[in-house]
Design brief:
Layout (H helix, E strand, L loop, with lengths): L6 H7 L7 H30 L3 H18 L2 H6 L13 E13 L4 E11 L16
Antiparallel strand pairs: 1-2
Protein name: Low-density lipo receptor-related
Keywords: Receptor
InterPro entries: Neur_chan_lig-bd, Neur_chan_lig-bd_sf
Length: 136
């Protein structure tokens, strides 16, 4: 290190100040603080998620076991008519929600639409004992 250096030399090396420099520093400082805040927020979320009570974990574990139990024979469930005998009818609730009318062809009398179709029915083969699955 050269001992002849003085503070005057350091002042010569400083960059000249421009009008926007303070604004840029503030913007950098704000973005740094935002990033720091986001990082702390994520850490708090991770900490909170690790404190989930055992009851909640048990509930979701029981729900997972139940879903595995119900879908274990998924091919059989899909192929069998959801009724205990052939004389029992299956009531199906049909809901159609019109989402959009995409096109209307008046000449050919055609209407092109987009709909949501929901079908609900009861399947008596999908049953379980809630006690075995933590009250689910």
């Amino acid at each position: 290190i050269n001992s002849n250096w003085s503070t005057a030399h350091f002042e010569e090396l400083k960059f000249p100040r421009t009008a926007g420099t303070d604004h840029n520093r503030m913007a950098m400082c704000n973005s740094f603080h935002r990033l720091l805040f986001l990082w702390l927020y994520i850490l708090c979320l991770c900490q909170y998620s690790s404190l989930v009570s055992g009851t909640t974990r048990d509930y979701f574990g029981a729900k997972r076991r139940l879903m595995r139990h119900l879908t274990n024979d998924s091919e059989i469930v899909r192929e069998i008519r959801p009724a205990r005998d052939n004389n029992t009818s299956v009531n199906i609730k049909v809901r159609i929600h019109l989402r959009e009318i995409a096109n209307v062809d008046e000449k050919n009398q055609l209407v092109q639409t987009t709909v949501w179709l929901r079908l609900d029915w009861n399947n008596p083969f999908l049953t379980w004992d809630p006690v075995e699955y933590g009250g689910v």
